[in-house]
């Protein structure tokens, strides 16, 4: 398999750091571009993000980018707005990705039914291979390769 672009959506949860390290290792090993994305989802008017929130999101994305570049990856970043799964799949088509590396939060049953699962929707609709990484698996893999 020849990877040229690895797309890694980040939600800035605790699972993002180990997921990003896993995606970085894959991109570096394959000599592929690592494309880090974050999707700002619509908020109710009461919770409209402030300018300081937008700056914090940009800062977090830049921090992840710097970390991946230090590891030897060629990195690009994208900040999108909309429904997360829809935007991730659209980005994988716009900037053709060979692989989407996405984190799984482990929601099952009623929680997933009520809240939906971004990762599940991406796996079903992505135009390319998708690697679903559990936070504990990503962290274990990173410790073993470090």
UniProtKB/TrEMBL annotation:
Record-annotated UspA domain positions: 5-134
Family matches, as Pfam families: Usp
Organism: Hymenobacter cavernae
Annotated signal sequence range: none
Protein name: Universal stress protein
Family per similarity comment: Belongs to the universal stress protein A family.
């Amino acid at each position: 398999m020849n990877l040229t672009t690895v797309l890694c959506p980040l939600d800035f949860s605790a699972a993002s750091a180990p997921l990003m390290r896993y995606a970085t290792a894959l991109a570096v090993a394959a000599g592929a571009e690592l494309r880090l994305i974050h999707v700002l989802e619509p908020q109710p008017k009461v919770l409209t993000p402030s300018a300081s929130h937008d700056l914090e999101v940009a800062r977090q994305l830049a921090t992840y980018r710097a970390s991946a570049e230090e590891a030897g990856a060629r990195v690009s970043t994208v900040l999108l707005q909309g429904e997360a799964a829809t935007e991730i799949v659209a980005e994988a088509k716009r900037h053709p990705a060979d692989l989407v590396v996405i984190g799984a939060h482990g929601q099952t049953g009623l929680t997933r039914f009520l809240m939906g699962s971004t990762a599940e929707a991406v796996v079903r609709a992505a135009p390319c291979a998708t690697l679903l990484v559990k936070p504990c698996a990503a962290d274990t893999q990173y410790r073993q390769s470090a």
